[in-house]
Design goal:
alpha+beta; Translation Initiation Factor IF3; 4-stranded mixed β-sheet
Length: about 70
């Protein structure tokens, strides 16, 4: 499973790299996305849903790290 770990990155880096990864992905592919920056936590999931892919929150830690499962549809 591919893991995009952006917990030490600030917006817009996670959004840009997530867009690039999605462009190269095939339908049915899935990956884990890890975010911690408040702007990224708000913007990246919103973008993924807007373009029609599946997104589910796997885990939220006490130090505000969010782990998502993304499936390309």
């Amino acid at each position: 499973m591919i893991v995009l770990d952006f917990k030490n990155e600030r917006c817009p880096i996670p959004l840009v790299h997530t867009k690039l990864h999605i462009k190269q992905a095939a339908i049915g592919d899935s990956f884990v996305l890890i975010l911690s920056d408040p702007g990224s936590v708000q913007d990246v999931p919103k973008f993924i849903k807007k373009i029609g892919h599946q997104l589910s929150l796997i885990e939220q830690t006490s130090d505000n790290v969010y782990k998502y499962q993304v499936k390309i549809t």
